[in-house]
Design goal:
The complex is a heterodimer of chains A (about 160) and B (about 450). Chain A is of the alpha+beta class and about 160 residues long. Chain A is built from seven helices and four strands, in the order H-H-H-H-E-H-H-E-E-E-H. In chain B, the strands form two sheets. A four-stranded parallel sheet of chain B has the order 3-2-1-4, with helices on both faces. A four-stranded mixed sheet of chain B has the order 6-5-8-7, covered by helices on one side. In chain B, strand 2, helix 7 and strand 3 form a beta-alpha-beta unit. In chain B, helix 2 packs parallel to helix 6, helix 3 packs across helix 6 and helix 13 runs antiparallel to helix 16. Chain B is globular. Classes of the chains: A alpha+beta (about 160), B alpha/beta (about 450). The interface between A and B is large, with 47 and 59 residues. The complex binds flavin mononucleotide (FMN) and FE2/S2 (inorganic) cluster. Flavin mononucleotide binds next to strand 4 and helix 16 of chain B. FE2/S2 (inorganic) cluster binds next to helix 5 of chain A.
Chain lengths: ~160, ~450
């Protein structure tokens, strides 16, 4: 089925377009808007964005494949990103990642069988002074202990 | 010398310090009123006198950059604020966006006026959701109060500010890559020239400044450019004012501290950062984000030439040199983003080196062959080293590959990846060679304590 935005997101779409001197500039914000609704960037989403912004599907595809935050396939309901860059690694990021893998029974890059949680790693997320840290959906969890990680995972499972 | 200041961070500890009310309670938006009553040339002159060295990493003087903008073009001009904050170890701009966003908006108003722009785009990496929210909230508040829009603060000079988001690519912090990303394209760096001041966003003259650079601008008009500059111990080197210093890694008290320029690395690591955890010693410090070559506690300044900016510290420990753009360049490293990463002797430097090189391989945009292939090659050599399969020749090869990336790429990502390689090979050669001899068994095998 062709992709369409909800009426509320249509209003946001119009607001986004009003910020730029041309339509192409809205490509990234509009892709975020679509992904928020659809969970990932399907071919239908690409066709929608191309048509509405009057750019080629090749252009949109090129953008989607360049940026790591656009999901090129479906992901879990929640996504966890464990930062693994140096400041976090110095304060136990490896232990946090391994703990998540063990508790969720999946490896980095995979999604739990119930489709609830996708586990990813991230490069430095600008929280180095509060390391180790992980991002869950839109929230940063900082100064993590393994007990804190357990609490976060339990809450996610329940949600 | 430690001189704590409370200018950028003035609202950080206030309740709802990010609100317009809090910002105005400490004098907010008075600077924009002052600046908009001046001529455009006067504004640029004041910023020039303040000696704000770009806080994004390269340390270029802000006022000089603004002066590159054309005076009589018939195209729109744009101010682009770089809040991509992706350099590993760097976490300073985020504190401003979250805790003092109106300072940025006020800086944008003055900045737009100074460069002849009527629109500013703040490019925030997508992951910083709270930062984006706080900036948008500040924009809405400012618009409602009449500080943005057709007649900001009653002056006949329209200004709009927008937040634009990235989508997870470190390279988009590089200014020309950022411009492509802002235009809705893949974030691949552009060849320079033309420079952004001629052909920037949407083909129009543009100035790209780091978010902290823009946040310093209202302070310049509050104190006066010269007064702002004189806060710094390195005023005489045209490195002025006050800035955010960060410290992370193996210290007791990691965080962001606002101080006048002139702080030394020793003060940052030991006094503000609380020093290494009990039972450990400092092994090395990456002074300003991961691209800056590492300094070791035993490094001594060699600057017998009296014309060197380092001469006053000749024979003294490198850790005791004030952290400035020119002093650090002369030391053979860089000040970068002024956020230091501390490695204690419990951390394996070879693993730290490997961690950073994995980062650069992952983030290379792939446009230029030396960078795309070189970063992958370096990572594979370090994989081999850690697996105990490398030879002594491989250690030299690291140096050679890095040297061949330097200067052979479209953007400075190449240097940013190569310089830490040269630094690690120079400063940790015995450790690297011990890895070869012991077949990967000589290190602590850990990064965390
Ligand atoms: C690979 C690379 C990444 C960069 N990332 C950032 C960044 O995240 N934030 C930033 O402000 N500048 C970054 N820069 C520097 C910008 O290109 C540019 O110099 C800076 O935004 C100019 O602002 P300033 O003069 O106020 O420092 C980066 C540069 C390179 C080469
Ligand atoms: S290294 Fe993890 S947030 Fe910077």
């Amino acid at each position: 089925m062709p992709f369409a935005l909800t009426p509320e997101r249509e209003r946001e779409f119009a607001d986004i377009l009003s910020r730029y001197p041309n339509k192409m500039a809205a490509t990234i914000p509009v892709l975020h808007l679509c992904q928020e609704q659809n969970g990932w960037i399907s071919d239908d989403v690409i066709a929608f964005v191309a048509q509405r912004l009057e750019v080629s599907t090749a252009h949109v595809q090129g953008v989607v494949t360049f940026y790591t935050l656009f999901n090129q396939k479906p992901v879990g309901k929640h996504t966890i990103w464990v930062c693994r860059t140096l400041s976090c690694a110095l304060r136990g990021a490896d232990d946090v990642l391994r703990h998540c893998e063990k508790r969720l029974g999946i490896h980095e890059g995979e999604t739990t069988k119930d489709g609830k949680i996708t586990l990813k790693t991230a490069e430095c997320l600008a929280a180095c002074g509060q390391a180790p840290m992980m991002q869950v959906d839109k929230t940063f969890h900082e100064n993590l202990t393994l007990a804190e990680v357990d609490r976060i995972l339990d809450n996610l499972r329940k949600s | 010398m430690i001189k704590r200041t409370n200018l950028i961070s003035r609202t950080y500890d206030l309740p709802n310090g990010y609100s317009l009310a809090a910002y105005e309670s400490v004098g907010g938006y008075k600077s924009a009123r002052k600046a908009l009553a001046m001529s455009r040339d006067q504004v640029v002159a004041e910023v020039r006198a303040a000696n704000i060295r770009g806080r994004g990493g390269a340390g270029f003087p802000c006022g000089v950059k603004w002066g590159f903008m054309p005076k009589n073009s018939n195209k729109p001009h744009y101010l682009i604020v770089n809040a991509d904050e992706g350099e590993p170890g760097t976490f300073k701009d985020r504190t401003i966006m979250e805790k003092n966003p109106h300072l940025v908006i006020e800086g944008c108003i003055i900045g737009c006026y100074g460069i002849g722009a009527h629109a500013a785009y703040i490019y925030v990496r997508d992951e910083l959701h709270l930062s984006k929210e706080r900036l948008w909230q500040a924009i809405h508040e400012a618009r409602k109060a009449g500080y943005l829009g057709q007649k900001p603060l009653g002056f006949d000079y329209p200004v709009e500010v927008y937040v634009h988001t990235g989508a997870g690519a470190y390279i988009c912090g590089e200014e020309t890559s950022l411009l492509n990303s802002l235009e809705g394209r893949r974030g691949e760096p552009r060849l320079k020239p033309p420079f952004p001041a001629q052909v920037g966003a949407f083909g129009c003259p543009s100035t790209v400044n780091n978010l902290e650079t823009i946040a310093a601008v209202p302070l310049v008009f509050e104190l006066g450019g010269d007064h702002f500059s004189q806060l710094s111990e390195l005023h005489y080197l045209k490195d002025g004012g006050t800035r955010l210093f960060g410290v992370s890694g193996h210290v007791k008290n990691p965080g962001i501290f606002e101080c006048a320029v002139g702080l030394t690395l020793r003060e940052l690591v030991y006094d503000l950062g609380g020093g290494p955890p009990p039972g450990t010693k400092v092994l090395g410090v990456i002074p300003g984000g991961s691209s800056c070559p590492i300094l070791r506690p035993e490094d001594v300044v060699h600057a017998p030439d009296s014309s060197s900016p380092l001469h006053p510290w000749h024979g003294k420990p490198a850790f005791d040199v004030p952290m400035g753009v020119d002093t650090y360049r002369a030391l053979g490293t860089m000040l970068g983003t002024c956020c230091a990463i501390v490695l204690s002797d419990k951390a394996d430097p070879v693993l730290a080196f490997h961690n950073l090189m994995r980062f650069y391989r992952h983030e290379s945009c792939g446009q230029c062959t030396p960078c795309r292939e070189g970063t992958g090659w370096i990572e594979r050599i370090l994989d081999k080293l850690i697996a105990g399969e490398a030879t002594m020749a491989d250690v030299d090869l690291l140096h050679e590959i890095a040297s061949n990336i330097m200067g052979n790429t479209i953007c400075a990502f190449g240097e940013g990846a190569a310089m830490p390689v040269l630094g690690f090979v120079q400063k940790f050669r015995p450790e690297l060679e011990a890895y070869v001899k012991s077949k990967g068994k000589s290190g602590t095998g850990r990064l965390a304590l």
